[in-house]
Amino acid sequence: VQLQASGGGLVQAGGSLKLSCVASGRTFDDHAMTWFRQAPGKEREFVAGVNWNGGRTVYADSVKGRFTISRDNAKNTIYLQMNSLKPEDTAIYYCAADPVLSTTPLYDYWGQGTLVTVSS
Predict the structure, then answer these.
(1) Distances from the Cα of 22 to the Cαs of 28, 34, 113, in angstroms?
(2) What percent of the chain has pLDDT above 90?
(3) Residue 30 pLDDT > 80
(4) Of 1, 4, 43, 41, whose CA–CA distance to 20 is shortest?
(5) Which residues contact 76 (CB under 8 A, 6 or more apart)?
(6) Which of these, 86, 82, 83, 93, lies nearest to 33 by C-alpha position?
(7) CA–CA distance from 117 to each of 28, 83, 87, 108, 114 (Å)?
């Protein structure tokens, strides 16, 4: 079972990036899928999550109105559209999967992370 995150990179403040996370080895259409991030010297924090069918989404206050999480179960993929990026969004972004949508990082499956760097 593998979660492969991609789409990170270097962007200027105010710019946009779209992250993707593809699952392989099994389907996750019955799992919640979530993005967490971890900045240097900081703990891993919840960013956004979506339930199994996309009907419910949850966002951290720091990204509300700027980030959008979505999923395509036919492609076993979730996305994170990030707009109006700020330097404080700089972090390694991880996707995760679990039967339950939660904001705590106690997930069964984790991707390897993709680095997002926002320059000022």
Answers:
(1) 10, 12, 12
(2) 90
(3) yes
(4) 4
(5) 22, 23, 24, 27, 28, 29
(6) 93
(7) 29, 13, 7, 27, 10
**pLDDT recorded at residue 90:** 98
Name the average pLDDT for the chain.
95
How many residues are given for the chain? 120
Q: Specify the pLDDT at position 29.
A: 87
In tens, the pLDDT along 104-117 reads 999 889 999 999 99
Exposed, middle or buried by CB within 10 Å (0-12, 13-18, 19+), for 55? exposed
CA–CA gap between residue 93 and residue 8 (Å, rounded): 8
> Distance between CA 33 and CA 70 in Å, rounded?
9
In sequence order, the β-bridge partners of residue 92 are 38, 115
Report the pLDDT value the prediction gives residue 10, as an integer from 0 to 100. Answer: 98
What span, in angstroms and rounded, lies between the C-alpha atoms of 61 and 78?
20
